Every structure is written in structure tokens, then in C-alpha cells.
Amino acid sequence: MMKRSLMIFTVLAAGGLLLSCSDAPLIEREANRVVLVELFSTPLDE
Amino acid sequence: MAFVIYYDSELLPQLSSPAGKARAEWYGAGGERPLAFFDGTSRSPQITLPDSFYPVYRDMIDAARTRKTMLEMRIDSAAIDSSRLTVRLVITPTDSSADTITTLRLVAIVFEDSIPYYSILRADTFYSPMTVRTVIGDSFGIPLRLRFGQDYDTVLSTPVPDWNPNRTGIAVTVQNFGSRAVLQTAVKWRINQED
User: Fold this and answer.
1) Using one digit for the tens of pLDDT, what is the confidence trace for B133-171?
2) Nearest to B146 by CA among B87, B68, B41, B71
3) d(CA B173, CA B23)
4) Rounded mean pLDDT of B14-31?
5) Measured between beta carbons, which residues in chain B are less than 8 angstroms from residue A39?
6) Which residues are CB-contacts of B94 (< 8 A; sequence separation ≥ 6)?
7) Which InterPro entries match (chain B) (predicted)?
8) Which pTM does this prediction carry?
9) pLDDT tier at B45 (50, 70, 90 boundaries)?
10) Residue B10: what are its φ and ψ, rounded to 5°?
11) Chain A within 8 Å of B184 (Cβ-Cβ)?
């Protein structure tokens, strides 16, 4: 009886873990970032 | 880092572009100049002392660089032939979060380096670096959907009217149109030269 309860608990715990992870993004690797700097300027005479 | 300058001046139309006006309005730049945006979302503070530019901008660039991104991008090839610029690029999502963003735009900013202009006040010729000529598509690029596990491979093209082909470059960026956040950028400083 105890063995069976333990098995059910294990299955439920594994299922719960799977569900909680399903929404997490899959990250293959971290990409290096190149930063974009957009400068809004005026010519010297303004 | 990729660095471009927009002008929306009526005084020197040879430096200005429709993209400069459109993107300044979109960012809510107002009349404050110079003004910089780092990866779309970090706005520079107003700087009056020229010597304080470097430390402030350096800190903001460093801060932007530490943010995580979810894709890689590379320019496979770029060329200017017969007054037409063509660029081939590949985007690789490295994080499945990219799948859920429906407001991504591919913004290809074409710029020309060292454009001469004459200053009447200083009675001398100056050169404007990395000056934006156009954004391919319109000033906000073209819509983009990414799928984790799939490379996005595309070719972009635009006419090169009277710009110096040896000083023309391109910065291609993926920007979230909803949040204005830039996710990744690739740059080719001078298209007709080997890096």
C-alpha cells in the first residue's frame, strides 16, 4: 500500500514538474549582443 | 556596437532623411539635441558639456551590453552594384521567447560616412559620420516573425542614388515595435570594403 502511494506521489510530482516547466522558454545559448546607438543631432550652425 | 546619426534639419537637407524625422517623432525626442537612444529604450540625459559625453555614453553602452538577448544575427554578404545595395543576413533565435513576440521589425539602416557640409558660422567644411540615408522598407523596417529552431534567412535591397558607395554602410537591427527595445544588431561599416 505504501509502495503504491509512493509511486502515485512520484508520478504526480513528475507531472507537476513537467507542467511547471512547459511555460519556461527554451534557451539554447546566450547570444552576444551588439548595441545600437541612435544619435539625433543637428548641424553645427543650428 | 553600431552607431548611426539622424538629422531632421531643414537648414542642411543634404544630411537629413525622412527616417530622421519619423524616428525622432516615434521616440518622442522632442527638440532636445543631441539625443541618443541605446538599444531603443535607454534615453541619454541632456548633456551640455562636451567633455561629459564620453563617460555618460560609455556607461549607457555598457549597461545596454549586459542585457540578455534572444537571437544572433550576422550579415552574410553585402554589396553595392549598379547603384543598388544588396545585403543577405541570417537571424538565429537562441531562445524560444522570440516565438511569442508578434511586433518584431527588421530595421535595416543605411548610412553614409564622412558627408561634407559647409558651416557658414564657422566658415569651414565639416564631415558628418555615419549619417542615416534611409531605412529599408520604411522608417520602421519590415515585419518579422521568428521561430526557435529555425534560421531566418533574407535578402534586402535598396537603391543607392548619389551616395558615395565606398563610404556607405548598413546597420541591421531587430526591434520590438511595441516596446521599442532593440534585441540585436549587425553592422557592416563599409559595404564595398572587406572588414
Assistant:
1) 999 998 999 999 999 999 999 999 999 999 999 999 999
2) B71
3) 14
4) 93
5) 3-6, 34-36
6) A27, A28, A29, A30, A31, B69, B70, B71, B72
7) Ig-like_fold
8) 0.87
9) confident
10) -85, -20
11) yes
Distance in Å, alpha carbon of A36 to nearest chain B alpha carbon: 5
For residue B182, the chain A residues in CB contact (below 8 A) are 35-36
Q: What is the pLDDT of residue B82?
A: 85
- Scanning A17-36 for CB atoms below 8 A from B yields 25-36
B3-188 is classed CATH 2.60.40.10: yes
ipTM: 0.94
Q: Is B72 on the interface with A (CB under 8 A)?
A: yes
What are the cell numbers at B190?
Answer: 563599409
Task: Tell if the CB–CB gap between B4 and A42 is shorter than 8 Å.
Answer: no
* More reliable by pLDDT, B10 or B70: B70
CB contact, 8 Å: B80 with chain A? Answer: no
Q: Where are the domains of chain B?
A: 3-188
pLDDT of residue B120: 87
B chain contacts of residue A46, beta-carbon cutoff 8 Å: 9, 11, 33
Cis peptide before B34 (omega within 30 of 0): yes
> Mutating which of A21, A28, A38, A46 best tests the B interface, going by the most B Cβ atoms within 10 A?
A38
